[in-house]
Amino acid sequence: MLMKDTEMKNVDGTMVSIQSAAxxxxxxxxxxxxxxxxxxxxxxxxVAMGNEALEKGIGTIAIxxxxxxxxxxxxxxxxxxxxxxxxxxxxxxxxxxSAVARAYGASKTPEVYLFDAGGKLVYHGAIDDNAExxxxxxxxxxxxxxxxxxxxxxxxxxxxKALGCSIKxxxx
Amino acid sequence: xxxxxxxxxxxxxAPKDSKVMLIDVDAPExxxxxxxxxxxxxxxxxxxxxxxxCIEEFPELVRFAKAHSPPEAELLFVSTDFASxxxxxxxxxxxxxxxLPTYMKRGGDMEFIDGLSKRWSGALPATFLxxxxxxxxxxxxxxxxxxxxxxxxxxxxxxxxxxxxxxP
Lengths: 172, 168
Known about the structure:
Chain A has 172 residues and is α+β, with helices and mostly antiparallel strands. Helices cover 29% and strands 22% of the residues of chain A.
């Protein structure tokens, strides 16, 4: 559905689309970036969850839609370094015109979309309810959604919100 | 209650010296603060020290706040920094020229975001224009300029009496 076939450059140099990243159990689309302190606060949890989702058969893809001319830390080179440093096992790609973020209606980083095996959106929102302190999380929104989806159960909270950095959209 | 805070920090949570720059609020308290404003139009800017576009736009907002103080309009700054970054936020406010007091988010993100407006995604910066009655008139997600705020204020100021007359 939403720009699924748009090919984007991955940190390993290959071209990847959301469709090609999808797996049999579903797809996790993460709008992310390098510079945002909210991404950084969540990053270890987010990468761990992305890697875990991948192992469970959920295709995972992280997308950087920020204009690096407005935020130099979000350059492709910096993305490569970050993906390696954090041990991302999933693609981390560049949304070169920010068109994918626009198509999704994504407005900030981090912001995640979880699709089931049939491509239906089952969860949209935040990672959990406490960016600042992993130990103080009361509701792990995304984990809860993934577990429910894999178990064929209804998603307890299908839409959540958290603060984040507004996406620095590239000019149309 | 908030009037008392303005005139000397009688609020329970806030120390009573003039250096108080950040008063903790949740969304209902902030909405209450809007409804008790001395001005009919209340802008609310949600910012954070870590948010670069917030810092970039801050001087524009301070200029606007100084140009349109109550009873004409009012602009309230609300830091959404982590509680552990409170001192950093306070230090920033101290040199920003922002009209005091300013405010700081208390509690969870989602309650705060939805409590201000369901239309807000949580992206920072965000600037709201509320009518004192509590109606959301404008929401900007992303950086704003002095000129944008000026335009919105002028438009809503001229629209207000007209819309009243139009109500049968």
